[in-house]
Specification:
- With 498 residues, the chain is of the alpha/beta class.
- The chain has 2 domains: 5-82 and 433-471, Urease, subunit C, domain 1, CATH 2.30.40.10; 84-426, TIM Barrel (Alpha-Beta Barrel).
- It is 41% helix and 20% strand.
- It contains 18 helices and 17 strands.
- The chain has helices at residues 97-106, 129-141, 167-171, 177-190, 203-216, 230-236, 246-250, 253-266, 279-286, 289-301, 311-318, 322-325, 335-348, 353-376, 395-406, 411-417, 420-426, 472-497; strands at residues 5-6, 12-14, 24-37, 42-52, 55-61, 67-74, 79-82, 84-89, 109-114, 148-157, 194-197, 220-222, 240-242, 305-307, 443-446, 460-465, 468-471.
- Strands 1, 2, 3, 4, 5, 6, 7, 15, 16 and 17 form a 10-stranded mixed beta sheet that branches. A 7-stranded parallel beta sheet has the order 8-9-10-11-12-13-14, with helices on both faces.
- Strand 8, helix 1 and strand 9 (109-114) form a beta-alpha-beta unit.
- Helix 6 (230-236) packs parallel to helix 10 (289-301).
- It starts with a strand and ends with a helix.
- Residues 1-22 form the signal peptide.
- It comes from Qipengyuania aurantiaca.
- Keywords: Signal.
- This is Amidohydrolase family protein.
- Residues 373-467 form the Amidohydrolase-related domain.
Length: 498
């Protein structure tokens, strides 16, 4: 049994004494640690976590087991939680693929659901499904640093088809019911774990797509098409709903009129498209908790999961804040990406003071409705939309957990959104989501208790993935690698421009 470790500063000690006859030889033992297990909602002090061949083989009272460990981590005064899972990321962008994965590992993210794992044409900036599968295999084999790529979705399916669209573009841009069925057939043949839909898809195409996906047993998730409500799409079998914009909308009197106007326009009636800029204020001014009930009930009844990605709504009202725009974490991003984000921020900051106030209020309603959804029994998963504007791979998952607590979840419940609930969604509760015998040894060792303050998930002493240990110094080395790669890439780009 060989255990790879990446350590220098943590107390990782090779055992040198001869094993007792009755002792079981194992790879790794994390000694005298407080175990926080979100799956069972427990917090138990004074435990030894025993790991062999990449899995947890025992969690016992400190010193009570007969184990001879090749390596030992002193967990005194520390806390171990399951590895964190980010259920909405974008790592398939070629220039930032490897750096994003390293940033996630350095921040305790050991598993992700990739929400754009395909390409329309091979020469685009987006990696194709086969390439993403190659990365997933390399990560599992330990040949590449990064979280496990636990689920791979398609690109967004919408109806924005150009007249000169290629065959691949047509597949991703259904315009009518026949196209919708063909899209499911074509994409299902590629073998993604999830078909992702956009809000900009025609009603007939979406309805047919959902029916065909249900017939084929294909999961569909993503954005709620603008002419349908959450109750509508949950009833059609939509698997996950992303982003905290549709639930507040459907909890307002403004929402039904907004969606109805879009549907009437698509049917050819002589009406104007609704003004999207009025949505935040319209939702705020007509918000009614009672209107949420049918949508929350539909999500629960149809087992529709919710990934609110609150971070994507934060940028809407903070784009003009100097401190926000000068986030120190920008140092890990290549200049090309920073420039793209800056352009997006500059477009957003053009909103009036009244619009910014409405966007801030809309964000608060997004948090409120997430709390309502959780209280109603909707299954909530933490996702960040990593690599969207001002959403930093790895780092931002901790910010999102903070928003979960602001939404009304307890710190333990917030941990569940990034551990045990995703494990349930993936159908892999035997592998992930807790700290117990039989689980894969994907763990985060913390210097402070996250059940007292969710911000303590940032106090990372070490990350264990499949039994492979990286201590704080090794994690810092990963961050340094990303910064160095950014400097080299920026220099190369500068030279190309000269």
């Amino acid at each position: 049994m060989k255990l790879r470790t990446f350590v220098s500063g943590l107390a990782l000690l090779a055992t040198v004494s001869a094993p007792a006859l009755a002792a079981e030889e194992v790879d790794l033992l994390i000694a005298n640690v407080t175990v926080i297990d979100p799956q069972h909602e427990t917090r138990i002090e004074g435990r030894d976590v025993v790991i062999d061949e990449g899995r947890i083989v025992a969690v016992v009272a400190t010193g009570s087991g007969e184990f001879e460990a090749h390596s030992r981590v002193d967990g005194s005064g520390k806390y171990v939680i399951p590895g964190l899972m980010d259920m909405h990321v974008h790592t398939s962008i070629r220039p930032v693929h490897e750096s994003s994965l390293k940033l996630m590992t350095a921040n305790g993210v050991t598993g992700v659901r990739e929400m754009g794992s395909d390409c329309v044409d091979p020469d685009t900036v987006y990696m194709c499904l086969g390439e993403m599968r190659e990365s997933a295999a390399k990560i599992e084999a330990g040949e590449m640093v990064g979280p496990r790529l636990l689920a791979l979705s398609t690109l967004k399916v919408d109806s924005n088809r150009r007249p000169d669209a290629s065959e691949g573009q047509i597949l991703y841009a259904p315009f009518n019911a026949e196209d919708g069925r063909a899209t499911v057939a074509g994409l299902a043949a590629r073998g993604p774990d999830l078909i992702k839909v956009s809000q900009e898809i025609h009603s007939d195409a979406f309805t047919a797509l959902m029916a065909e996906a249900e017939a084929r047993g294909v999961r569909v998730g993503g954005h709620v098409p603008m002419m349908f409500s959450i109750a509508d799409v949950a009833g059609m079998g939509m698997d996950t709903i992303e982003h905290a914009r549709d639930l507040p909308l459907d909890c307002s009197a403004f929402g039904s009129g907004f969606r109805d106007q879009i549907m009437r326009k698509l049917r050819g009636e002589d009406v104007a498209w609704p003004d999207r800029s009025k949505r935040p204020a319209g939702v705020r001014d007509s918000f009614d908790e009672a209107l949420c009930t049918p949508h929350l009930e539909a999500m629960v009844a149809n087992d529709t999961w919710y990934v609110p990605t609150h971070l994507t709504r934060e940028m809407d009202f903070r784009a003009g804040e100097e401190a926000y725009r000068k986030d120190a974490r920008l140092a890990y991003l290549v200049e090309m990406q920073v420039a793209d984000w800056t352009r997006d921020l500059d477009r957003t900051v053009q909103a009036s003071e009244e619009e910014v106030a409405a966007l801030s209020d809309f964000f608060d309603l997004a948090l409120k409705t997430t709390g309502m959804a959780h209280a109603a029994g909707v299954k909530i998963m933490a996702g960040t939309d990593a690599n969207d504007t001002m959403v930093f791979p790895g780092f931002s998952l901790h910010d999102e957990l903070g928003f979960m607590v602001r939404a009304g979840l307890t710190p333990m419940e917030a941990l569940q959104t990034a551990t045990s609930v995703p494990a349930q969604y993936l159908g892999r509760e035997g592998d992930f989501g807790g700290v117990s015998e039989g689980k894969l040894a994907d763990l985060v060792l913390l210097d402070a208790d996250p059940t007292l303050d969710i911000a303590n998930t940032k106090a990372i002493a070490a990350v264990v993935q499949g039994g492979v240990v990286r201590d704080r110094a090794a994690l810092d080395a990963l961050l340094a690698e990303v910064r160095e790669r950014k400097i080299a890439a920026d220099a190369q780009m500068s030279e190309a421009k000269e």
